[in-house]
Design the sequence.
């Protein structure tokens, strides 16, 4: 064992290694991405690690491996679980042989920009156990415990982390290089009753088994001592049920409460690491001991509702303070304030008004809309698309441009204002077809990134081809799954694929899907890209433009510069059009002329291409 | 080594991508580990790109620390950009130190004079209203070519209670370990920061 600083995600990955995981498959999604990224970089002996094409595929790979008797881990963010859920429900019915852990990351407070989805609801609906740690140290422990629980119950087990835990870094004792996973026989079990859904009798028998596994899980969780119950010496006080990440604020909250006259010794606490199933024995003991309960859980009042049901069942009459009856919100993260204010509300203590409420000054901070990076090839794509729409004599608010997930959504922001909407992976294509079906006569354009296209764009494009929906699809191909921190995807250049992998070339794939109007452009070439778009948009049928150029962050990391670009001070009229049109972070206003920051510029020369005074000179390099 | 008397100490860091905000937190975490002081470091990158809002929270001295620093509770705020500093005001505690590196990283709308940008006086007033002690550092305080984040780190260690918790020599060593090839330059930035009084 070694003491080192690890993140929650790394702790999860290291815990899985220690538990003997043999197969790991995930799809990138903040805040979950580092778990697989860490393992891919580490290359642990005897462990298969991959970024899969999407979360459903990743989950199926983990399930196949677990059916074959091996331990497996699949990782995703909450939105990815929605994609994978179809298979998960079915796999839950069949159960698993090797331990299988499904890591899902939720994001209360939305620091990664998606829905505040509470994935605990999925555990309820799937009848699968779910564990949730409060710190990186607990993550390491629970990651191992989740495998044991899965193995002992034959059920896949959810491990849920929130951003604050997944991205926290703390020093802990970890085994950095555990031995390779044990050589276990590959199970080849042919059992129609278990592995198919052929008929009502089979399905209902599996449903019965599923419920039995969940009941068994409650028992095993109790044996493993995953939840900690601490009863106050005296009965009749307040009981606190702290779920997952909220528990880490208790100790600090008690310090503050002691100063306000609430004795921590008067409080009973149930720290809930198993958010599903509810440990009913511990809850019953809490009911018997406490006159009221406080529930600390972020997002939806799921445990709170279960407690109310349990209270009704057991005839508990005490107040249950939380979101349904109490001060808490279903929106945002919990912290120290919720512990202090929650206890105060439950015991009837009034607090100083500004306690733990700071001076809000952020309203006066300058807005900092995020834009694409300096040198991003798709700055050219958006500029060209805006120009093409103008050249086709349409107003911007007449042409629907649907957006998708990933960097490409930045086209919604200034200075482009190109993209109209953002739904889910691959949805740009379906939504675009919906507008066409609704009868929109002006052009409809869908925009999507390369990884997103591989993930969920393929079936939607097939649908467009079959029904000959006259849309223009622009694939903004930068060769990487970039927004989540540069992961390899099926289209990433050969040089970055691992040995034995094969790259799929979108330029070959798309025409093979029956797309007859296929174009490829280099978005650094604004003129040709614009002309191609004008031509394509005017054509009937399904048109696909592949705008291809590698992500500038990646090319810059390898030291690639395309051109030297400099401002000719005597020619610059300070019209600032380069800044207002491109919004490039490398450009700023100097005293006499626009200034290009050479440390940021990669030489894409888009600024030179939009400069009306020809005041930006470009010089090709080698 | 931690003799068990280390008081909890919370540091709230803000700035924009590319300023080394997260690096300050990482170096302090490493120093805390070496001194066996428990630490929880929670960076929020938003978009990991240059010019985007970045924040990080470092909680020292608690065995179990929630990742988020409660409002009115930070012992130290380090703001590497003026406007972003406003976002940290609600976290400064009464009597806490608020250090701003008075750099202006203007968003395009501000550059085009289409949007307002706060003055340093405004930030200072807000920090004072919140009960914090305001320290402003300026780009002219540091010779060009030296790392501002390392300089600010030095300033924080010598002008706030952080220097009583973490040993400056150890922090310097962690800076050196991280960039062995820039050791001399960083040592200079760190030295200037440590010697900086206002």
Sequence:
């Amino acid at each position: 064992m070694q003491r080192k600083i690890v993140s929650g995600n790394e702790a999860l990955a290291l815990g899985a290694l220690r538990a003997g995981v043999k197969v790991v498959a995930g799809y990138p999604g903040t805040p979950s991405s580092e778990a697989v990224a860490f393992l891919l970089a580490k290359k642990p002996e005897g462990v298969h690690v991959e970024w899969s094409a999407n979360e459903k595929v990743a989950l199926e790979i983990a399930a196949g491996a677990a059916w074959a008797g091996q331990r497996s881990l699949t990782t995703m963010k909450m939105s990815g679980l929605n994609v994978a859920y179809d298979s998960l429900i079915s796999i839950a019915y069949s159960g698993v042989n090797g331990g299988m852990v499904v890591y899902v990351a939720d994001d209360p407070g939305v620091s990664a920009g998606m829905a505040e989805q509470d994935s605990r609801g999925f555990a309820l609906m799937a009848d699968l156990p779910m564990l949730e740690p409060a710190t990186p140290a607990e993550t390491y422990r629970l990651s191992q415990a989740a495998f044991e629980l899965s193995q002992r119950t034959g059920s896949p087990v959810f491990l849920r982390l929130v951003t604050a835990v997944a991205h926290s870094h703390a020093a802990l004792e970890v085994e950095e290089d555990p031995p390779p996973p044990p050589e276990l026989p590959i199970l080849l079990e042919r059992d129609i009753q278990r592995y198919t859904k052929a008929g009502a009798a089979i399905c209902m028998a599996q449903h019965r088994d599923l419920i039995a596994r969940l009941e068994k899980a409650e028992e095993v969780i109790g044996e493993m001592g995953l939840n900690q119950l601490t009863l106050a010496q005296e009965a009749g006080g307040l009981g606190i049920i702290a779920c997952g990440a909220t528990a880490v604020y208790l100790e600090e909250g008690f310090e503050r409460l002691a100063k306000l006259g609430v004795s921590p010794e008067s409080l009973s606490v149930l720290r809930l690491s198993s958010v599903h199933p509810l440990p009913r024995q511990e809850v019953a003991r809490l009911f018997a001991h406490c006159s009221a309960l406080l529930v600390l859980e972020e997002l939806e009042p799921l445990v709170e509702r279960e407690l109310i049901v349990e209270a009704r069942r057991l005839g508990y009459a005490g107040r249950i303070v939380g979101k349904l009856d109490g001060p808490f919100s279903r929106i945002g993260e919990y912290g120290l304030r919720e512990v202090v204010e929650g206890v105060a509300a439950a015991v009837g203590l009034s607090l100083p008004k500004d306690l733990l409420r700071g001076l809000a000054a952020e309203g006066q901070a300058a807005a900092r809309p995020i834009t694409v990076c300096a040198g991003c090839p798709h700055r050219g794509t958006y500029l060209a698309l805006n120009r093409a729409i103008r050249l086709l004599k349409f107003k911007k608010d007449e042409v629907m441009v649907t957006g998708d997930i990933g960097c490409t959504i930045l086209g919604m922001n200034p200075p482009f204002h190109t993209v109209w909407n953002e739904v889910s992976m691959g949805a740009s294509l379906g939504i675009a077809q919906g507008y066409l079906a609704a009868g929109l006569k002006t052009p409809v354009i869908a925009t999507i990134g390369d990884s997103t296209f591989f993930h969920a764009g393929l079936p939607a494009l097939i649908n467009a081809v079959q029904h000959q929906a006259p849309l223009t699809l622009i694939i903004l191909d930068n060769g990487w799954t970039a927004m989540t921190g540069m992961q390899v995807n099926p289209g990433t250049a050969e040089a970055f694929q691992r040995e034995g992998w094969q790259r799929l070339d979108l330029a070959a794939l798309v025409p093979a899907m029956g797309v007859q109007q296929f174009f490829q452009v280099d978005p650094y070439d604004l003129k040709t890209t614009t002309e191609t778009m004008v031509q394509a948009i005017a054509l009937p049928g399904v048109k696909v433009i592949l705008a291809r150029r590698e992500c500038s962050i990646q090319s810059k990391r390898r030291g690639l510069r395309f051109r030297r670009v400099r401002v000719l001070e005597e020619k610059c009229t300070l019209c600032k059009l380069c800044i207002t049109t491109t919004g490039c972070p490398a450009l700023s206003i100097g005293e006499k002329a626009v200034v290009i920051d050479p440390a940021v510029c990669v030489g894409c020369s888009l600024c030179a291409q939009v400069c009306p005074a020809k005041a930006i000179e470009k010089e090709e390099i080698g | 080594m931690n003799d068990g008397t280390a008081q909890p100490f919370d540091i709230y860091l803000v700035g924009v991508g590319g300023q080394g905000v997260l690096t300050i937190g990482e170096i302090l975490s490493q120093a805390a580990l070496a001194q066996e002081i428990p630490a929880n470091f929670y960076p929020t990158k938003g978009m990991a790109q240059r010019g985007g809002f970045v924040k990080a929270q470092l909680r020292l001295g608690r065995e179990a620390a929630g990742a988020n620093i409660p409002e009115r509770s930070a012992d130290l705020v380090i703001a590497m950009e003026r406007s972003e500093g406003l976002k940290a005001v609600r976290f400064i505690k009464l009597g806490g130190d608020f250090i701003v590196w008075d750099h202006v990283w203007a968003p395009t709308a501000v550059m085009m004079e289409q949007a307002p940008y706060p003055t340093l006086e405004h930030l200072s007033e807000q920090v004072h209203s919140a009960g914090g002690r305001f320290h402003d550092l300026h780009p002219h305080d540091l010779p060009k070519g030296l790392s501002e984040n390392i300089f600010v780190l030095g300033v924080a260690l010598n002008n706030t209670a952080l220097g009583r918790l973490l040993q400056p020599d150890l922090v310097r060593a962690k800076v050196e370990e991280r960039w062995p090839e820039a050791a001399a330059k960083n040592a200079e930035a760190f030295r200037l920061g440590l010697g900086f009084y206002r």
